Amino acid sequence: MKEGLLIVISGPAGVGKGTVVGKLLERNPNIKLSISKTTRKPRPGEREGVNYFFVSRQQFEDDIKNDNFLEYAEYNNNYYGTPKDFVLETLKNGFDVILEIETQGALQVKSTFEDAVLIFILPPSMKELYNRLKKRATETEEEIEARLNIARGEIRLLPKYDYCVINDNVDKAVEAIEKIIEVEKLRTRRFDVQSFLKE
Amino acid sequence: MKEGLLIVISGPAGVGKGTVVGKLLERNPNIKLSISKTTRKPRPGEREGVNYFFVSRQQFEDDIKNDNFLEYAEYNNNYYGTPKDFVLETLKNGFDVILEIETQGALQVKSTFEDAVLIFILPPSMKELYNRLKKRATETEEEIEARLNIARGEIRLLPKYDYCVINDNVDKAVEAIEKIIEVEKLRTRRFDVQSFLKE
């Protein structure tokens, strides 16, 4: 059986990553989502093993020591990390695996896992990103401006990604990612020339 | 306007490249085929400017001197080459350009034109390639064996290509190439981050 593909998806807050990834998983039973571990406390509605595995700082640091993460990072005094075992095993079983992680983790993954495919989801424009954040109505104008600044920093890292998909329309964004996955599997490095010639 | 994509298609004799490329062009008015120049004499049914531009050895060597080729090579004492002007101008006008050329020329193109996308068309198996060559019924068993040997040599170069598409079914092969073209246009190197952030 051929190994699955490791797909890393990032994009600024407000771009609609969650919706896109949700629909992608719904439509493609062959794609599995990696659940991150975090030391952050669960927010209302978040469920253990669905949104995150919630662990203590001690447990997380033990995992770091034991080299159990594909990538991890610390934000606002909380750790977030991708458990290595689940990813490697699921790939080996022929499933594609999606990591929905931020830029810092994504670039870590690429440096250790060269075959990972990095996809950056963009809003149609910065103005539209502002509108989407504004619509959430959960943040002050100041907080929105801070988020836009973070978004600009993330978007500057886009050249380190393989593909960018503009989320103008969720279905189209999902289809674009499906095509990327399909086409990445046609890469010659996944093809075994020697066995083909021996057949 | 965004530049078109340069797509190079190779594959062993008998694999059905011509049929695949013909259908691809028919379905995609945005894709143009580059016509090669050759010093070979036209075969029955071949037309000037459709199959090739037929030129004299002197004209071809003048073109070489004037750096008019994107790639060229000599086979069986005949030159074959891709005129540079047509390709560069057509790409600039936003069309995608297909070169249907053999491996030697393909690798030349990649070395001077890094953004070219190299696609190798494979038969479903070596046995099936033999059957297809046999069906043509224009060649002796010895000639078929010689062709298979050439094919093996070409297939060994497949790792230098970007993608391989198995021509099991013409429509599926055409769709795979269409998806490759679509997905290659989502590559981050084709995206202008600076103007996006300035918008």
TrEMBL record, chains A, B:
Pfam families: Guanylate_kin. GO terms for molecular function: ATP binding; GMP kinase activity. It is found in: Cytoplasm. Keywords: ATP-binding, Cytoplasm, Kinase, Nucleotide-binding, Transferase. The keyword Kinase applies. InterPro entries: GK/Ca_channel_bsu, Guanylate_kin-like_dom, Guanylate_kinase, Guanylate_kinase_CS, P-loop_NTPase. SMART domains: GuKc. SUPFAM superfamilies: P-loop containing nucleoside triphosphate hydrolases. The keyword Plastid does not apply. One of its GO terms (cellular component) is cytosol. Its EC number is 2.7.4.8. It catalyses: GMP + ATP = GDP + ADP. ATP binds at residues 11-18. Essential for recycling GMP and indirectly, cGMP. Belongs to the guanylate kinase family. PANTHER family: GUANYLATE KINASE, GUANYLATE KINASE-RELATED. This is Guanylate kinase. It comes from Caldicellulosiruptor changbaiensis. The lineage of its organism: Bacteria, Bacillati, Bacillota, Bacillota incertae sedis, Caldicellulosiruptorales. The gene is gmk.
